[in-house]
Design brief:
With 252 residues, the chain is an alpha/beta fold. The protein is 43% helix and 17% strand. It binds ligand 9D3. Ligand 9D3 binds next to strand 5.
């Protein structure tokens, strides 16, 4: 898989890919990221990427021509991208399902905005989709692009060493994770649950299921609608919901 990223801050993208699992995967050529500096596609001496908005108002708007030319260069070097993602606060919310969809493609281009906005013809005539990473205001699209690359790359074969850990990932299964512990078994009066220390693998598996389900039920109950639960998990969930009901009655 290859990502092509268009940005006025290439070093922000490079810095985000220089450490950890993603850096290692790139070194091993498990996926590629080519970062394009938007200013390389300007045609004036000052390498101008923005201009004042038509109709007036505060702030500057990214000009369309450098972005169209950057994607032309990507097409020329690597062929037609299967997705041209405009990262923008107006986009559809990026989720684990969107990550899985993008991970099935082999060429994804991401356009990062800055300033107050981007000339809307980029959305209309260049991007194939628009994605947001959540409802908060950031200074630009570079961090969202890194978030998308990270979530997508983790789904590519070999990127995360332990495939089981990807399959078991909270949002892949549609549940929050169970609590984790390591040694020592007791620290500052805080104890690791006995069952985990016991070595009874059947009991441990069941405890983890119960804790993952209980946490999901209390913090993110809406996730349960889409979760894939085995028979044992369905049974545990019924028990937890009964306990909750019991507690609710006890309150009044
Ligand atoms: C002052 C301009 N803003 C009005 C509230 C609009 C605006 C434009 C551009 C706000 C933020 C940005 C920069 N953000 C992104 O490009 C962005 C983003 C985000 O801010 N939050 C969540 N996901 C994303 S994806 C791209």
């Amino acid at each position: 898989m290859q990502f092509d990223i268009v940005t006025i801050f290439p070093r922000m993208i490079e810095a985000g890919l220089a450490e950890g699992i993603l850096a290692r995967a790139i070194q091993r050529d498990l996926f590629r990221v080519r970062v394009r500096d938007l200013r390389d596609f300007t045609d004036d001496r000052h390498r101008t990427v923005d201009d004042v908005p038509y109709g007036g108002g505060p702030g500057m708007v990214l000009k369309p021509e450098p972005l169209f030319r950057a994607v032309d260069a990507i097409r020329h070097d690597a062929g037609e991208p299967q997705a041209v993602v405009l990262v923008s606060p107006h986009g559809r919310q990026f989720t684990q399902a969107e990550a899985a969809r993008l991970a099935s493609l082999d060429r994804v281009t991401i356009l990062c905005g800055r300033y107050e906005g981007i000339d809307d013809r980029v959305r209309e005539g260049l991007a194939t989709e628009e994605l947001s990473i959540g409802d908060y205001v950031l200074s630009g699209g570079e961090l969202p692009a890194l978030v998308i690359i990270d979530a997508v790359a983790r789904l590519l074969p070999g990127v995360v060493g332990d495939e089981d850990s990807v399959a078991g990932d909270s949002f892949s299964r549609g549940l929050l994770d169970f609590p984790h512990f390591t040694r020592p078994a007791e620290y500052k009066d805080l104890k690791v649950p006995d069952v985990l220390v016991s070595g009874h693998h059947g009991e441990i598996r069941k405890w983890r299921k119960r804790r993952a389900l209980a946490l999901t039920l209390s913090r993110r109950p809406e996730l349960l609608a889409g979760a894939e639960l085995d028979m044992e998990e369905q049974e545990i969930l019924r028990e937890l919901m009964e306990e909750q009901k019991g507690a609710a009655h006890g309150r009044d």
